[in-house]
Amino acid sequence: MYLFYGCRDWQLLTAESAESGASAMRHRLLGTSLFALCACAATSSASAQGIGQRQDEIIVTANLNGTPTSPSVEEAREELERIPGAIGVVEDEGFADIFAQSIGDTLELTPGVFADTSAQRESRISIRGSGLNSSFERRGLMVLRDGVPISRAAGNTEFQEIDPLTIRYIEVFKGANGLRYGSTQLGGAVNVVSPTGQTARAPVSLRAEGGSFETLRANGSIAGTGAQTDYWFGVTGLTSDGYREHSDVRSLYGHGNLGWQIADNIETRFYVTALSDNFELSGSLTLDDALANPRAAGRPVTIGPFFPGGPVTVLDPGPVADDWDRNLDVVRISNLTVIDLGGANLELGAWYSRRSLDHAITRFAGIIVQGEDEVGGSVRLGGDLPFLARQSRWQIGATYAFGSNDARVFENLSGERGVLTSRSDQDSSLLMTYAQLELGLTDTFTVIAGGQYARAVRDVEAILNTVTGRGEFEQFNPRIGVLLDVSENIQLFGNINRSFEPPSLADLTAGGAFPFAPLEEQRATVFEIGTRGQSGVFSWDIAAYRAELENEFLDFAIPGARGLVTVTGNGDRTIHQGLEVGFDVRPAREYLEARGQSLRLSVAYTFNDFVFDDDPIYGDNQLAGVPRHIFIAEARFDQIDNWYFSTTMRFIPDGPWADYANTERAPGYETVQVTAGFTLFEDFQLFGSIENLFDTVFISNLTTVADQSISNSAIYTPGQGRAFFGGIRARF
Predict the structure, then answer these.
(1) CA angle 648, 174, 122 (to 5 degrees)
(2) pTM of this structure
(3) d(CA 17, CA 43)
(4) Which residues does residue 450 pair with via DSSP β-bridges, in sequence order?
(5) Which sign does the torsion angle of CA 173, 175, 179, 184 carry?
(6) 90 DSSP β-pair partners
(7) DSSP SS3 for 505
(8) Is residue 223 within 8 Å of residue 242, measured between CB atoms?
(9) Helix, strand, or coil here: 131?
(10) What is the CATH number of domain 14-355+531-544+555-686+698-731?
(11) Closest CA to 111 of 602, 660, 677
(12) pLDDT in tens, 438-489
């Protein structure tokens, strides 16, 4: 499901206006004409997703003070504005009144981010082409919760581990701009910040909603503060039959934290997450079938007859007969402690997680069963420099994580486990150390210099029918950037850096379907320039970049004895370059504010130029997996403390290439969504949305292949058709 929320990173509209009408629309709006864009002229109270697109709102009422372990949104913005590169903030009010199922649904209006849907509760997130064609267990991006990594030492991230209804705000660090967390990946880092007893919107929040496909979701949270403590805990339950055949989801998610002010200069916070996420998989279709029968599950794979009237051999019965699904249970405990040393701050993090996976797919791949334990720790130390300009400071840090995975594969016999076909012990470790200096040469000009060393180890010890293997990967990544404050509200920035990404265990083992693969680490040199700021009724966040990659990870779906399986290889040289534009305008702002109204028009445009660089096989072809142009427009009108109406459009002129030979691509499309809300009385709001208003048939996700003109593989996932969702929200 696609959910879009306009470039909404800056405005807060106040807790009151946000509660009554806030929640930036989501889904795609690019209408079918200029009128459609103008008609979309409704603005959202939690605004744009580029940090430069923040404007001060009419009033500020909510006194949501942050703490050392959990800064407020404004404190986070002030920190992000010191980064010489593209970053963003997404507030909870931007997706509070829409049916966002996954973290991908919350990020789709952030320029430079491409998020699509492969299954309910499962998104693919690619930033600047990171992990641009990875399947489940995504790569290319470090995801953290409250500054502590949830991305695994094995190199993957389970996006289902985050429920959008337990988010206060999200920080997006594109590329090497995530150095503050030691991120090495091309895509950068995403830090999800939880509500606390200090920053929660209300002591008690209740939410119930339902809609198409027998969908029901309920959420509740409680928060409170004491003399030296505060707490927040929320739980979400979701059930839905899904748009496509065999796409049911049943999910129960709980997340909470407890903060303790040990002393005037020491605060510690404990976090706990527990989830049980179970969803069926519909499988993929050929392009013609996906466009003609978008609600169908994947078809059985057959060959024959070998002679007239002869037998037909079934190679794979398909997702329904073999009950393809993905069942993930996670328990995670973490801690973050911040100590004010007087002139410097010390942050200490630690975590433990237990992850259990039961994943039934094709008969070739079988039923993947894994049990993984991971432990890790992090340290960050930083402070102001006692010389040069006032913004000068320093930071050093390190992160270490170790994971041990008992990986088994069983035969898939009509959805039931057959014999054990393979088993291995898989160990992973990741060490990252980094340092950075921010040197204020004048009050308005800062030079940022930093570096990072990363080392990753992947070990596979065979127990049954697998191959033992070991990979060691390391690199030092320098970084230099400049930041110029042109005026109080306008900044220019630029940076040059290196990125490094080791192959994940899933890449090295193809999820257990193949022996240990001899992959190289992916490396890149990245150049970036941009500007952000606001002037009058206009605000913007614009960045251009070029990444020159070596050994890029490329995924190929190849035929097996009984179906398709995805394997990963290294490309030679590739180039990722592009433009990221977020632009907001608030027409007639003073006039509307005087009438207690708000109007905002937002546009997010991403240009992705990802190509092979004189490849011996593919020449200078476009890379497969991500569209070249992505245009999203949103408009929202608020009658403060009363009602709001919003519409959003997503326009993809041409879909992504399905193959590296560039012989077949998904078609382009436009989808429109409308959202509205009404305040019944204080603390109670009704909200609803119509997704894919015109019931457009489109492709939301695909699996890349070498040459589709030869294989004609079933690699396309249809997007969701028209759907209605609505509910009620109460805060006390």
Answers:
(1) 55
(2) 0.88
(3) 12
(4) 436, 479
(5) positive
(6) 170
(7) helix
(8) no
(9) coil
(10) 2.40.170
(11) 602
(12) 999 999 999 999 999 999 999 999 999 888 899 999 999 999 999 999 999 9
